[in-house]
């Protein structure tokens, strides 16, 4: 079984005063993330914690069927799915519920109800945009390329217009929010997998560079904890654990 590894991300000043939450058993205890040794559905959680300056530990990565069966038997996985983030004494599941919790706690949400509506609305659209990208190595290459190209053609003009209309290099308001991090994840993935698709969108390339340069995000993206895109070994590991 692989050993636990600790992520160290430089702390950045929170953009709003954090609210009191359920205390952890120890003030020094870091959040613990359970997932495979891959980006997957945990990557947006990692990026959000990195942006917030939250340091976390990775539990031993899922590698055998008994690894996830043990977690399921523990009752910590409400829907029997990963990722699981143990934070503030809570066993948190469902990726975007976790992202919203971290965002609310560390000032990555809206300043008011209208901004929060726009964040929630754009977040749903970004999840639709990201879905075909997440299928990399789970479907034939040509079908994957066609699906991603279709998604880029549909969604990229929308988000480029939102960014242009907002006029602040952020999708909502004048500061970093969770939807900036969602869009960054998509752009980084496209840059890894099909960079030619970004050639028509120089403004989005510039946006990616600026958001990626935020110190806490830049540190994470350069760290050994930033996994490469899926490869055959990663897919084989996931299939082995899930028995399919």
Automatic annotation (TrEMBL):
Which controlled-vocabulary keywords does the entry list?
Answer: Transferase
The segment(s) forming the GST C-terminal domain are 112-232
UniProt region (Disordered), positions on chain: 1-29
Which InterPro entries does its entry note? Glutathione-S-Trfase_C-like, Glutathione-S-Trfase_C_sf, Glutathione_S-Trfase, Glutathione_S-Trfase_N, GST_alpha, GST_C, GST_superfamily, Thioredoxin-like_sf
- Domain (GST N-terminal) spans 29-110
Transmembrane in keyword set: no
- Where are stretches of biased composition, namely Polar residues? 1-13
Gene3D superfamilies attached here?
A: 1.20.1050.10, Glutaredoxin
Enumerate the Gene Ontology biological process terms.
glutathione metabolic process
MF terms per GO, please? glutathione transferase activity
* Short name of any one Pfam family annotated for the protein: GST_C_3
Q: Which family does it belong to?
A: Belongs to the GST superfamily. Alpha family.
Put simply, this protein is called Glutathione transferase
State the organism named in the record: Plectus sambesii
């Amino acid at each position: 079984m692989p050993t636990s590894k600790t992520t160290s991300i430089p702390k950045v000043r929170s953009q709003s005063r954090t609210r009191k939450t359920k205390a952890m058993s120890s003030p020094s205890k870091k959040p613990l993330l359970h997932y495979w040794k891959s980006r997957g559905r945990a990557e947006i959680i990692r990026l959000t914690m990195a942006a917030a300056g939250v340091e976390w530990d990775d539990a031993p990565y899922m590698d055998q069927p008994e690894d996830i069966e043990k977690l399921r038997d523990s009752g910590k996985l409400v829907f029997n799915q990963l990722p699981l983030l143990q934070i503030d004494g809570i066993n948190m599941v469902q990726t975007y519920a976790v992202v919203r919790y971290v965002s609310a706690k560390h000032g990555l949400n809206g300043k008011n109800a209208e901004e929060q509506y726009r964040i929630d609305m754009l977040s749903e659209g970004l999840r639709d945009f990201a879905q075909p990208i997440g299928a990399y190595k789970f479907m034939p290459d040509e079908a994957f390329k066609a699906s991603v190209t279709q998604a880029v053609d549909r969604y990229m003009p929308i988000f480029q217009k939102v960014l242009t209309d907002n006029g602040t290099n952020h999708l909502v308001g004048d500061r970093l929010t969770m939807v900036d991090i969602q869009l960054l994840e998509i752009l980084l993935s496209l840059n890894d997998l099909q960079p030619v698709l970004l050639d028509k969108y120089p403004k989005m390339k510039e946006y990616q560079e600026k958001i990626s340069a935020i110190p806490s995000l830049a540190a994470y993206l350069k760290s050994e904890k930033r996994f490469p895109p899926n490869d055959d070994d990663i897919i084989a590991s996931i299939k082995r654990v899930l028995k399919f």
